[in-house]
Write a structure and sequence with these properties.
heterodimer; A: 191 residues; alpha/beta; Rossmann fold; 7-stranded mixed β-sheet; 6 helices; globular; B: 129 residues; 22% strand
Chain lengths: 191, 129
């Protein structure tokens, strides 16, 4: 099962994504993509670490090349796609097509896991025109989001803490067994 | 509380006026209203601007939001969604954006209904109206 969770800044998407693993009993891996290279990132990383403490995730730090991750029959939470893409583009490595490269990794992680949840960002709706590099980044991320949404059983947009759920299989998704509809039916329960 | 959200120029205020039969003078403008007046108002528009002004005045918007919940639980709040897009370069802009997100989550959690106007169409994403 695969889910894409997206939304704007501080919309509650991380907690929602984590909650999808509440009823998952296998090994759980958290793929952390944020580079710990400045005080603000370090602070964010600390907040995220605290939030998922006690939830049973083993952290794998992988800032680029997620296709090199070798885990099997497990749950994977990848957070987040926006950082991963930025790292791939700005790491200095020469890559032709970052979307292609990331999708190869996504395909591999999908086939190697039972439950795969990807947290991404909504970057395409602020109506601001940016420089070429940023515009390119936005285009890549939108492209990735669309491709992943297509692969996913469900996609979820978090809006001020409220999950809005859609997707091709979401009505009969096995994710129902992972408690997603309890969350959906009662957003209050998750605070 | 009732929470009306959406992008800029989506007709959120018009929707609230019609849906909740509000008169023009019953709607405070977060961009210029008196902070204390929020606690007795019927409706506050542009809550994201209110948050910006609170930050500029060194008042914690999260504490302020919690006070609204305690003192004016019937309030209708209208706020832009501003959290989508590229992370702003300026630290203050990032802080503002994050605080709007956090306050939005708190307001949504405590609201009986949350209505999101998207492409001009109201969607009730929490509760009933």
């Amino acid at each position: 099962m695969m889910a894409l969770v997206t939304g704007g800044s501080k919309c509650g998407k991380s907690s929602f994504a984590e909650s999808l693993f509440d009823n998952y009993n296998g090994a759980k891996f958290y793929v952390a993509t944020m580079l710990p290279n400045d005080p603000e990132s370090l602070k964010q990383i600390e907040i995220h670490r605290k939030n998922r403490m006690g939830k049973g995730f083993e952290t794998i730090e992988k800032f680029t090349d997620i296709d090199e991750i070798n885990v099997r029959r497990c749950g994977i939470l990848l957070e987040c796609l926006g950082n991963l893409l930025a790292n791939e583009i700005f790491s200095g490595n020469k890559i032709n097509d970052p979307v292609d490269k990331i999708m190869r990794g996504i395909d591999k992680l999908k086939s190697n896991s039972d439950l795969f949840v990807i947290v991404s960002n909504d970057v395409a709706r602020d109506g601001i025109l940016y420089d070429d590099t940023t515009e390119k980044y936005i285009r890549y991320l939108v492209d990735l989001n669309s491709k992943i949404a297509k692969l996913s059983d469900i996609f979820v947009e978090c809006v001020y803490g409220i999950p809005i759920i859609g997707g091709k299989n979401f009505e009969n998704s096995e994710l129902a067994g992972f408690g997603i509809f309890d969350v959906f039916a009662n957003p209050d329960a998750k605070g | 509380m009732i929470f009306v959200i959406g992008g800029v120029f989506e007709g959120k205020k018009q929707f609230a006026e019609k849906q909740f039969s509000l008169l023009d003078d019953e709607i405070l403008d977060g961009e210029k209203c008196d902070f204390e007046a929020v606690f007795s108002a019927k409706c506050v528009n542009n809550c994201h601007n209110l948050i910006k002004r609170l930050i500029n005045n060194k008042i914690d918007p999260i504490e302020f939001t919690r006070e609204i919940i305690l003192r004016n639980s019937g309030l209708i709040l209208i706020m832009d969604e501003i959290g989508c897009g590229i992370i702003p370069i300026e630290r203050d802009d990032r802080e503002y954006r994050e605080l709007v997100g956090k306050c939005g989550c708190i307001i949504a959690e405590k609201s009986e209904a949350v209505i999101r106007i998207f492409c001009g169409i109201p969607n009730v994403i929490k509760g009933e109206i």
